[in-house]
Amino acid sequence: MFINRKSVAALLGATSILLLAQAHALQSEATDTTRTLNNGNLVLENIPEIPERIGEQLNRFQNVRSAAFREFTSDGDAIYISTRFGDVAQIHKVSEAGGYRQQLTFFDEPVGGISRQPNSNTMIFSMDAGGNEFSQLFMLDSETGDYHMISDGESRNGAVVWNQEGDKIAYQSTRRDGRSNDIWVMNPNMPEQAELVLAAPDGSWWGPVDWHPNGEKLLVVQYRSITDVRIHELELAEGELQLLEGSDVGTNANFPLAYRKDGQGYFFTTDQFSNFTQLAFRNTETNEVRLITKDINWNVDNFAMSEDGSTAAFTINEEGMSQLYRFDPMTFAFTRVEGMPIGVASGLTFSPDGKKLALSINTPKSPTDVYLLDTNDQLTRWTYSEVGGLNTDNFVEPELVRFASFDGLQVPAFVYKPQTEGPHPVIISIHGGPESQYRPYFSSTVQLWLQELGAAVIAPNVRGSAGYGKDYVSLDNGFKREDSVKDIGALLDWIATQPDLDAERVAVIGGSYGGYMVLASSVHYSDRLKAAVDIVGISNFVTFLTNTESYRRDLRRAEYGDERDPDMRQHLEAISPNNHVDKINVPMFVVQGENDPRVPVTEAEQVVAALKEANKTVWYMNALNEGHGYRKKENRDIYEQATVLFFEQHLLPKD
Questions:
Q1: How would you classify the pairing of strands 182-186 and 195-198?
Q2: Secretion signal: which residues (predicted)?
Q3: Are the CB atoms for 548 and 598 separated by under 8 Å?
């Protein structure tokens, strides 16, 4: 853990915040009031007026930007990135390292995935409306800025994969019935002739990954759950579907990556032979599987291969940090790339000539930026994202710790501590998923809490988290759901043993499944908490599974349990926080997006109503133009300011 001394001025600032917090605590939640902000799109209930000083304090933290790699230009001399200079992220072109960012799109909604047409600078991008996640596909001429929609304007579309000739795309769409995750093929110049090539036979997610070099087959992924992922090959002419990896038993995860360019097999990651996902190659002529990373006991989580198939690269997720390797697709030899920044890498893509590897790198002290690696492993930074004038030397890097849970399980957690003397109040940040993982990404929000609130931040990877093997990720499934909540109880026990942490002042915050964890922790540990922030969280598993969008319902049943089964339904009702509001005795801040297709707004509405009826302290924020989380800066800014005010009033004061 690397820490720097904080100035005396900052120390005095923290003291003044504490005094102001005590003053605000005397005012608090007097009346049931509702008001709107941001042109009526942000509805606030029972949230006090946010003092101007908070906006001023947070201004620099809220003006941090990032830049993510999206594509190379067709000649490989420039790159396309996504970054935000207005309210949402748009596509920009950068022609040289550190160069000017030329904005190409100017929409009110953020641009999603991008896929460039081979041998052209025309690209397809996706974009939804108001966070509803029903993304449409658009063709964009990057030279003129002209664009037009090529999807039907109603269904949910994505996972675009161009064939080698650049005259067809395969993509995933719910176009057939609004529910099924089917695979379609289209000539983008004739979208009206789009052809359904695979009608998904069940409620799992099906998507194209790669075209066979002969152009006659597709490598297809079928995702049923994080521990049941299957690989198929679709023969396009006859529609014949062949299962390549996985089985109806559904005990392992196999993710297709790419065909080898000689057409003799395909690369994939699998946990068939290990607790972790290994890089493998199956020779389709001999049916032999070659395990490439059999001696690395961490998940392979990124892969890229050059257009000519002569070179490749992959990363592993080692304790949340990325390690980059170069890889020869023909000999299977790989070597670790030394001297890379310590952080999280994503977006690996080779230039058209295979001589440059682009990747987005995020570190605990710097937001995501784009780097290019040459054939001599020389790394060049291409974007320099703004950090709002903040001195990142003062940013805190986390320490990785492990604590014992109720059954002896060692649970990993990243701990950020302020550079001042404790004991510090604590904010426990719980990730969503649940099949996700907290990784030490740059977070201006975490640094804001450290510097402006003087609070320590702990981000645990409770059981059920990804990144620690398939056994670990399955420890919270079905009837074992509340075992992950007990991990939070064990973390509270661990906090009480740390002299520089204040076990009497602890808050929990989390989004999506993390929001459920916040609500459940409030049910079980209200006597040990001072504040709770539930962001787009599940309040009742039965109503959630009933109301979540149909295209993802079966996927969630695989994780949480099938509410149609009487025994499971009884269990889900028994552990749903909305049925135990009487046990919640901690101030609650509920944050929601009206258009959320994953965790519908009704999940927030019902828990807020129940808390109000029980005369509990509850703040409620609902953005009418957002979905599963806030993507528009004006909404995020108000949310972050309200969260600071909430923590000032309920976490910082000492009894």
A1: antiparallel
A2: 1-25
A3: yes
Per mean pLDDT, which range of 67-71, 247-251, 280-284, 367-371 is the poorest? Answer: 247-251
Q: Locate tokens 């396309």: which residue?
A: 80
Question: Please, are residues 608 and 620 in contact by the beta-carbon 8 Å criterion?
Answer: yes
- What's the full length of the chain, in residues? 655
By CB neighbour count within 10 A (0-12 exposed, 13-18 middle, 19+ buried), where does 13 fall?
A: middle
Asked which of 226-230, 411-415, 423-427, 510-514 is least confident by mean pLDDT, the reply is 226-230
How many beta carbons lie within 10 A of that of residue 624, not counting itself? 17
% of the chain residues with pLDDT over 90: 77
Gap between the Cα atoms of 52 and 585, Å rounded: 30
HEC profile for 210-275? EECCCCCEEEEEEEEECCEEEEEEEECCCCEEEEEECCCCCCCEEEEEEECCCCCEEEEEECCCCC
Over residues 32-49, the pLDDT tens digits come to 799 999 999 999 999 999
pLDDT mean across residues, the chain: 91
pLDDT exceeds cutoff 90 at 400: yes
Burial 443-480 (b: 16+ CB within 10 A, else e): bbbbbbbbbbbbbbbbbbbbbbbbbbbbebbbbbbeee
CA 538 to CA 536: how far, in whole Å? 7
pLDDT grade, residue 399 (50/70/90)? very high
Q: Distance between CA atoms of 517 and 539, rounded to whole angstroms? A: 9
Handedness of CA 361, 367, 368, 374 (dihedral sign): negative
Give me the sign of the Cα torsion angle 182, 185, 187, 188.
positive
pLDDT tens for 622-641 read 999 998 988 888 999 999 99
Q: What is the pTM of this model?
A: 0.86
- What local confidence, expressed as pLDDT, does residue 261 receive? 95
Round to whole Å and give the CA distance between 151 and 136.
6
Question: Using one digit for the tens of pLDDT, what is the confidence trace for 139-158?
Answer: 999 989 999 999 999 999 99
Its sign, for the CA torsion 104, 367, 629, 136, is: positive
- The mean per-residue pLDDT over the stretch 79-90 comes to 88
Share in percent of the chain as helix, strand, coil (round to 5): 25, 35, 45
Q: What is the CA radius of gyration of the chain?
A: 25
Orientation angle between helical segments 566-575 and 481-496, nearest 10 degrees: 20
The listed CATH number (1.10.8.60, 3.40.50.2300, 3.40.50.1820, 3.60.15.10) that belongs to domain 8-62+389-628+637-650 = 3.40.50.1820
What strand order describes the sheet that includes 321-327?
299-305, 312-318, 321-327, 334-336
C-beta of residue 293 within 8 angstroms of C-beta of residue 278? yes
Torsion of CA 232, 233, 239, 241, to 10 degrees: -40
**What DSSP assignment string belongs to 24-81?**
HHHH-S-S--EEEETTTTEEEESPPPPPHHHHHHHTTGGGB--EEEEEE-TTSSSEEE
Cα 170 versus chain centre, distance: 24
Pairing of strands 366-373, 399-404: unpaired
pLDDT tier, 292 (very low <50, low <70, confident <90, very high otherwise): very high
